[in-house]
Amino acid sequence: MVEERRPLLRFDGLSAGYGRRLVLNRISLSVPERSVTALVGANGSGKTTLLRVLLGLIKPRAGRIEYTLGERPRIGYVPQIDSSEVRFPVNAREVVIMGLTPSRGLLRRISPVDRRSVDEAMHIFRVDDLADRPFRAMSGGQRQRVMLARALVSRPELLVLDEPVRGLDLASASRLVARIDSLAQERGMTILVATHSLDLVANQADHVALFSEGRIEAGPAEHILSDEVMTRYHGMPVYVREVEGQLVVVPGHVDGAPRHAHRARRIARPAEERAP
């Protein structure tokens, strides 16, 4: 059973969209502090729109964001990376240094303390040996780890990740998600991750919000990851099962719904076992 934690922030009756298109329709969601909350849904379901509202990139049409500790937390952000957008002639270390800009300004020289923070962030995501390599010459997985280091260098209280495993193979994606989860535990950070892949976050997320047609269904992972909720969300029989100590979500037979809802058991594993 996941420890009940107070919310770091709440989305209250939030509506948002683009032009005449309404993407989110009066949704409410709490994000508990020192936890991993997964936003899960298909492309266009509203996950990225919610993150853009949180980051102040678009204004909500209704509702508000409430910061329960009184102040907006320090936020680190890792956006989706498209290979066609990687054009700037910068190396990995220079990308990570960019993460210091909000706290030190654009033109100020980096201090010895800043250098240590950059070195630490790069070490955590194992990109030390890539420091001088051009960012555009890296693989997708290497770029993602550099971007995570950039987000971490400012020591955020809230780490926001938009499709962090996009374009990665299954093994690389699994290792990255496990590392993010152990980092949250080690540093007591709150992590908000948007993904279309429920399988990859099923064993790391404390809370899950399912996005569909502008609305959400959210709650503790052990509630959301159940046959009943998954079947309702997908509109067809879906089962949550344990395979070799991991929860997996598998489709059932379309012509027969499960007779009894099975509440999935949360698999609690030590952080050292989850880290890559």
Q: How is the secondary structure organized here?
A:
Blueprint: E1 7-18, E2 21-32, E3 36-40, H1 47-54, E4 62-67, E5 75-78, H2 92-97, H3 101-104, H4 112-124, H5 140-152, E6 158-162, H6 170-187, E7 190-195, H7 198-201, E8 207-212, E9 215-220, H8 221-224, H9 227-234, E10 238-243, E11 246-251, H10 271-274
Parallel strand pairs: 3-7, 3-8, 5-6, 6-7
Antiparallel strand pairs: 1-2, 1-4, 8-9, 10-11
Helix pairs in contact: 4-5
Write up this protein:
The protein has 276 residues and is of the alpha/beta class. It has a domain at 83-156. It is 30% helix and 27% strand. A six-stranded mixed sheet has the order 5-6-7-3-8-9, with helices on both faces. The protein is globular.
Radius of gyration over all CA atoms, rounded: 19 Å
Principal-axes shape call: globular
Strand order of the largest sheet: 5-6-7-3-8-9
Order of helices and strands: EEEHEEHHHHEHEHEEHHEEH
The biggest sheet amounts to: 6 strands, mixed
How many β-strands, per DSSP? Answer: 11
Structural class: alpha/beta
Number of helices: 10
Summarize, please:
This protein is α/β, with parallel strands linked by helices. Helix content is 30%, strand content 27%. The chain has helices at 47-54, 92-97, 101-104, 112-124, 140-152, 170-187, 198-201, 221-224, 227-234, 271-274, and strands spanning 7-18, 21-32, 36-40, 62-67, 75-78, 158-162, 190-195, 207-212, 215-220, 238-243, 246-251.
